[in-house]
Structures are given as structure tokens and as C-alpha cells.
Amino acid sequence: MAASVLGELASLAPVEAVYGNMDEQALREALQERLVVSVEDVRIGMVHVPGPAAGRAERLVRWFPGCDAIVYGHTHVPEARRCGSVWILNPGSPTERRRAPSRSILMLRIAGGELRPELIALKT
Within this chain, do residues 91 and 111 fall inside the same structural domain, yes or no? Predict the structure, then answer.
């Protein structure tokens, strides 16, 4: 992604982001590899590259202790499941389907300290 895109998004609403493997150098310098944000009392870990599929959920939980949810990307395959009490979430991709069944996004709703993820499949 280009730094200008992040700037455009930030002009619309607050943005929290981590850098990904395809981001330009300016974003790699401006953003972190891993980040934890809090919304209400919900802690959300973010990373783009989650590592190999084997042991992924457990590894993410170790990387982000105390988080209620962990959002990752890179694979383009949507996921919303629990590992113990922690949500493991991947929005998929709204643009490149790759191995996923469809293009997708993820909506996170937080109310009263409760997180409710919803994967949304997009029509082609």
C-alpha cells in the first residue's frame, strides 16, 4: 500500500494499522510490525504476517498476551474462530480472492466490552 492511501483513510476516520509485506518503505518506517489497540475494554492485537499455518492460532495468542482478539492478514483467507477465549480473525481481502472462497471483509462490533466479529462475503 502507498502511504498516501493511509493518509486518505486517516482523513475519513481514526486509523490504526501495521505494515504488510507489500507496503512501500515509507509505511514500513511509519508503522509497527505488531500493535495492540484498545476499544472500550477490548484489547485487539494486529499483525500482517502470522507465520506458518501449523500452530498459527496458538502462536498469535503467545505474541499478544492479554488480548481478546487478534487480527492478521497476509493469507487472504477469511477466518473468525476462537482459540480458547481469544478471537483469531482474518478479514480476507476485498480485492484479491486467491485461495479464499470469495472476496471478503470483517466487521467488528464492540459493545459493553463484548466483541462480535462478522465476516462478510462480497459478491464478485
Answer: yes
